[in-house]
Design a protein that fits this description.
With 213 residues, this protein is α+β, with helices and mostly antiparallel strands. The protein has one domain: L-fuculose-1-phosphate Aldolase. The protein contains 6 helices and 8 strands. Helix 2 packs parallel to helix 4 and helix 3 crosses helix 5. The mean pLDDT is 96. Bound molecules: zinc ion.
Amino acid sequence: MLLAEERELIVEFGRKLLASQLTTGSGGNLSIFNRKENLVAIKPTGVDYHLMKPEDVVVLTPEGEKVDGALKPSSETRFHLALLKHRPDINAVVHTHQVYATTIACMNWELPAVHYLVGFSGNKVPLAKYATFGTQELSDNIIAAIGKYNACLMSNHGIVTVGQSIQSAFNTAEELELVSRLYYQTKCIGEPVILGDDEMKIICEKFKTYGQQ
Ligand SMILES: [Zn+2]
């Protein structure tokens, strides 16, 4: 099976999205780019993560041509491929409608540094302008907004995170859900204190060597 390892990871992390309550049913989508093989493994559209098997995961060229898999690829294939092409430093993309991050996105706000864990993205999480799901316009808006950040809120839609591995893109989605919740809750009781760019620069530097190396 082509990209066997990547296809297993898509199934594994899809189930992790459900277990972490970052998505429900068949919502959200994930992709992994094997740059050596020059092929992308991406979630098939509309398949429940509990029922998904590695062979259901679709394998595409970076241009979007199907190489393997009987099912249709994710409805958001366009922006997955655009991100993997645009950012040579990343190999994986995670997209969810996780509730707290999407709440902030529905306000059309960026997520500021209300907690240092926003450093999983950078000094903030930028916001992409709204466009209909699955469109080229949505893909263009995400590319315009994300820059060098590891995440981007999508107006009235959700969030997308990127990483060197599917594990890191998943971790970023999980941590940013906590930061989004903190931002929402602090806004409920007053005006949160936002960490300055100088402090976030230190945090982002520390994150490069954080955890097990
Ligand atoms: Zn979506």
